[in-house]
């Protein structure tokens, strides 16, 4: 893992200075419930109901025998658009669930899942589903590539707090 | 007698569970889930005959003739079968990725006639008809039926192999995959009779949860000339879809009519 990280960082440093960044900030809200489990979370880029790029999928990756994957289908739009076509864990996409708070995920626009994005209209989609809890899905539309810096946010009402998208060209 | 029973066991079982007057009761299978993820998914299925969908209030569905088709088109297993007062249950282990079909299909001929002032009844297959029903039977009445009931469940990515129609009786050929249904979206299904499109067929779709509302909520659709219907799902939930028809394509000339029916339970997910 450490080795992979260092390779990534080297790679990042080696990219041209003009490469931009997409930052996705997801707020996992504090909920006053008797039984709390961190939500499963999927963040992806869609176009015309198709998942174009998986940015991250957070689930209970610690469980024995990949058992945490049993509830992935509760993120039912993501499951339909992408999850059911994958095998788990997904390299570079799967990760553990996130605690209450704000989390920012940054992606180099010239590398990884965003590098292949063709110019056009897309949406960032964030879907959260919580064991013995609810489910919520939020979308932020955006144009690609961004000519100027773009910053947008939407606010969830139950399972998600504020979700923000910032693109630096 | 024993061999006759053995041969017609399936038919009798199906008639006990399924061949009730069409308007009286509904037969159904209800899967615990239809869209599954994970390493080792299972579904459990309830099967019953009832008035209201999907409640156990009349008789259990007999499980004779139950068939599981695995994603590679092979015969699978319906495990832990049990029949109680009001319902039967069984489990299916989805141990391969893809779409499973659980089916119950069958039927045959029913005959009645008079012999020395007594009413005689017989149930069986076309092959046995000539052997077992007297050629000179008085006041002979023969009817034929073929019924099919199916449900679908998918582990991972939906596949089509298990969905292939058998070519016998009334069947559903999905255009929209039956485990990819969402509220507010359209789904298209084709009905085929003996493998050929069934046009002008009335198809009824009823949402579950009848007990807690006043209206039946039935949607009545008619197949087009290719045997296709398109439904826009009004809300998420479990739906019962049914169609039946009568024609004169009987397997013995003494039967005037053949009745063919199909039903399935479909799960529509929320957006």
A few lines on this structure:
The complex is a heterodimer of chains A (169) and B (271). With 169 residues, chain A is mainly beta. Chain A has helices at residues 2-14, 76-81, 112-115, and strands at 21-28, 40-47, 50-58, 94-95, 101-108, 120-129, 135-144, 150-155, 162-168.
What does this protein structure show overall?
The complex is a heterodimer of chains A (169) and B (271). Chain A has 169 residues and is mainly beta. Helix content of chain A is 14%, strand content 40%. Chain A contains three helices and nine strands; from the N terminus they run αβββαββαββββ. Chain A has helices at residues 2-14, 76-81, 112-115; strands spanning 21-28, 40-47, 50-58, 94-95, 101-108, 120-129, 135-144, 150-155, 162-168. Chain A has a five-stranded mixed beta sheet. In chain A, strands 5-1-9-8 form a four-stranded antiparallel beta sheet. In chain A, β6 and β7 (135-144) form a beta hairpin. Chain A is globular and about 45 Å long. Chain B has 271 residues and is mainly beta. Chain B has one domain (2-108, 142-268). Chain B has two helices and 19 strands. Chain B has helices at residues 2-17, 126-132, and strands spanning 26-31, 35-36, 42-50, 59-60, 66-69, 75-76, 79-83, 88-93, 98-115, 118-124, 138-155, 170-174, 186-193, 196-197, 202-207, 219-222, 228-232, 237-247, 255-268. Classes of the chains: A mainly beta (169), B mainly beta (271). The interface between A and B is medium-sized, with 15 and 16 residues.
Tell me, briefly, the overall form of chain A. globular
Radius of gyration of chain A: 16 Å
The string of secondary-structure elements of chain B, in order, is HEEEEEEEEEEHEEEEEEEEE
Quaternary structure of the protein: heterodimer
Helix count, DSSP H or I runs of 4 or more residues of chain A: 3
Q: CA-to-CA gap between the ends of chain B?
A: 56 Å
Uncertain residue segments of chain B: 1-23
Task: Report helical residue fraction of chain A.
Answer: 10-25%
SS-derived structural category of chain B = mainly beta
Number of structurally distinct domains of chain B: 1
**Rg of chain B, please?**
19 Å
Number of strands of chain B: 19
